[in-house]
Amino acid sequence: MKYLKFDDQLNQYISKHNNQDDDLLKELRELTYQKTGRRMMISPDQAQFFRTLLALIKPKKILEIGVFTGYSSTVMARSVPDDTRIVACDISEEWTAIAKEFWIKANIDHKISLRLGNANQTLSDLIDSDNISTFDMAFIDADKISYDSYFEKAYQLLKPGGTIIIDNVLWKGTVADPERIDDDITALRQLNDKLAADPRVQSTLLPIGDGMLMIAKL
Ligand code: SAM
Ligand code: CA
C-alpha cells in the first residue's frame, strides 16, 4: 500500500498516543465551547506536534496570528523557557478575554504580549518597529483570506532558519476537490501552490489536524 488510510480506528489510535493535555487544557476546550459555541482551536494532537517542535527549535521569539480563546498559545507558552516571548495577534476582545484568564491561571501571562487589532496592521507595525528578522517561529491561524499577506509579513519578521507553521491548509480536504470553489478554498490553494514552488523556503504539507504547512525560511 502506497498511502496510509486514515479510518476512525487509526485516527483514534494516533490521537490516543498524541495527547498530553492536562485538566487545565481540557477545561479551556470545554469552556470555549460553552461560551463561544465554536471549536476553532487546534486539536490535542496538533498541540502535541507543537510541544515536540518547540522542544527541538527552542525559540526565543514567537509570533502567533489568531489567538481565539488561547488554547494554542497556552500550549506554546508552557513548552518554552521563562524568557521566551510570544507576540499574540487577534481582533476579538471577547475571545481573547478568555485567553487572558487562562494565561493567568497557567502562570504564563508574562510570556505573552497580546496585540488586539487587525493582524495585517499589527504585522506591518512590527515590521516598522525594528522587528525584521528577529522571530524564530510564527504560527498562522487567523482568517484564511489574509493568509498570503500574513505569510509574507511573517517571512520578513522571521530569522533565516526560522519556522512558519500554517494551519488548516487542507480545509477538510476541499482544496483537493476541483468541484469546490469559494474564497477561502481559493486562497488556501493559491498559497499551497505558491509555497510548494517558492525558492525562499522549504515546506512540507503535513496531514495533521486540518492540514498544516511546516515551512523553513532559507
Ligand atoms: N490558534 C487558535 C487556537 O488554536 O487556539 C485558534 C485561532 S481561530 C481559528 C482564528 C482567530 O483569528 C479568531 O480568534 C479570530 O478572532 C482571529 N481573526 C480573524 N480575523 C482576524 C484579523 N483580521 N486579524 C486578527 N485576528 C483575526
Ligand atoms: Ca486552525
TrEMBL record:
Keywords: Methyltransferase, S-adenosyl-L-methionine, Transferase. GO terms for molecular function: O-methyltransferase activity; S-adenosylmethionine-dependent methyltransferase activity. The keyword DNA-binding does not apply. InterPro entries: Cation-dep_OMT, SAM-dependent_MTases_sf, SAM_O-MeTrfase. Transmembrane segments: none annotated. GO terms for biological process: methylation. It comes from the Bacteria. The keyword Transport does not apply. This is Methyltransferase domain-containing protein. It comes from Moritella marina ATCC 15381. The lineage of its organism: Bacteria, Pseudomonadati, Pseudomonadota, Gammaproteobacteria, Alteromonadales.
